[in-house]
Design a protein that fits this description.
Pfam families: Iso_dh. Its cofactor is Mg(2+); Mn(2+). One of its GO terms (biological process) is tricarboxylic acid cycle. One of its GO terms (molecular function) is NAD binding. This protein has 337 residues and is α/β, with parallel strands linked by helices. It has 10 helices and 12 strands. The strands form 2 sheets. Strands 2-1-3-12-11-4-5-10-8-9 form a 10-stranded mixed beta sheet, with helices on both faces. A two-stranded antiparallel ribbon has the order 6-7. The longest helix has 17 residues. The radius of gyration is 20 Å and the shape is globular. It binds nicotinamide-adenine-dinucleotide. Nicotinamide-adenine-dinucleotide (NAD) binds next to loops.
């Protein structure tokens, strides 16, 4: 079956708690017989002139070659003369969509227990194009760039994702009533793609109304697709609905079908090396990678083991109010497999 062909994937354990939680992922994957061989790459200790950053050219080549990877949190080194690590990855691998599945974890009580939505954020342009300047003293200008190319590309991905994952509806989030040209073009592209997917319901929701609906009743949404800035804000809002960034997985989709999964949280230097980190977000991110590879059997099995461990409540790390170490929690997940 497809579930046993060996696949090579790049692994960036990252900094701080990164290596500890990456280790948990490796152990759980091994215990579940996931047919993945990891190719490990660490962030370099000096700037690689070929990437102008601490990420080596070889590590980027590894992702390009394998087309799938998992990234732990990286602490961007301080100092001048280099590009930020995340920016290097985004630009070099052309990571154009950030996908965050957001679902309630049974047994971990938050305000809602019925969240099950996906946010898909355009990740290359919009308000984050980096084009800001001063016009005259006291007046500055920032350019919001929306292109047909990038809008169609992210809309295509959203509908493709909805179809592949048995989702029913895609909502395009916008402010086209005010941003008529930019968000207007974004919506036009979404509509065009929606026309090719008659089996998926399509709707358009104004961003402010979307925020209100999300906090009142998140079950109203299924798949949401949006320009960069709205996506940045809404995806964190959604993470908050299920218990915070420590539980939220994400996956970056790049040109040519690259998928680079990563946890949303940082390297947590305050607890690094203490066996206290919660590996859930990185594990759930690794599961988005398995789903990208259509290894749904393995993905379901590991996801259930994680959810059952958390629901059981016996082994939880400190951030979830428990006293377990990373190692105990990981072993509990393996027992649930
Ligand atoms: P952080 O997410 O690392 O930590 C914020 C708080 O959350 C800390 O108290 C930390 O202990 C806790 N926390 C985070 N992840 C946790 C986990 N898995 N288990 C238990 N507790 C967890 O944010 P920060 O302190 O603002 O950033 C620290 C470093 O991480 C910085 O160098 C920053 O640049 C980097 N960072 C990297 C990424 C990334 O690689 N995607 C994202 C955010 C921050």
């Amino acid at each position: 079956s497809v579930d046993t062909t060996p696949i090579t994937a790049t692994l960036f354990p990252g900094d701080g708690i990164g290596p500890e939680i990456a280790d948990s992922v490796k152990q759980v994957f091994r215990a579940a017989d996931v047919p993945i061989e990891w190719e490990e790459h660490y962030v370099g200790t000096e700037v690689d002139p070929r990437t102008q950053s601490f990420l080596t050219w070889e590590s980027l080549e590894s992702v390009r070659r394998n087309r799938v990877g998992l990234k732990g949190p990286m602490a961007t080194p301080i100092g001048k003369g280099h590009r930020s690590l995340n920016l290097t990855l985004r630009k070099e691998l052309n990571l154009y969509a950030n996908v965050r599945p957001c679902y309630s974890l049974p047994g971990y009580k938050t305000r809602y227990d019925n969240v099950d939505l996906i946010t898909i954020r355009e990740n290359t342009e919009g308000e984050y194009s980096g084009l800001e300047h001063q016009v005259v003293r006291g007046v500055v200008e920032s350019l919001k760039i929306i292109t047909r190319h990038a809008s169609l590309r992210v809309a295509e991905y959203a509908f493709h994702y909805a179809k592949a994952h048995g989702r029913e509806r895609v909502s395009a989030i916008h402010k086209a009533n005010i941003m008529q040209k930019t968000d207007g073009l974004f919506l036009k592209c979404c509509r065009e793609v929606a026309g090719k997917y008659p089996e998926i319901k399509y709707e358009e929701v104004v961003i402010d109304n979307c925020c209100m609906m999300l906090v009142k009743n998140p079950a109203l949404f299924d798949v949401l697709v949006m320009p960069n800035l709205y996506g940045d804000i809404i995806s964190d809002l959604c993470a908050g609905l299920i218990g915070g960034l420590g539980l939220t997985p994400s996956c970056n989709i790049g040109e040519g079908g690259i998928a680079l999964a990563e946890a949303v949280h940082g390297s947590a230097p305050d607890i690094a090396g203490k066996n206290l980190a919660n590996p859930t977000a990185l594990m759930l991110s690794a599961i988005t990678m398995l789903r990208h590879l259509e290894l749904h059997g393995k993905a379901d099995r590991i996801q259930n083991a994680i959810l059952n461990t958390i629901a059981e409540g016996k082994y939880r790390t400190a951030d979830l109010g428990g006293t377990s170490t990373t190692t105990d929690f990981t072993e509990a997940i393996i027992d649930h497999l």
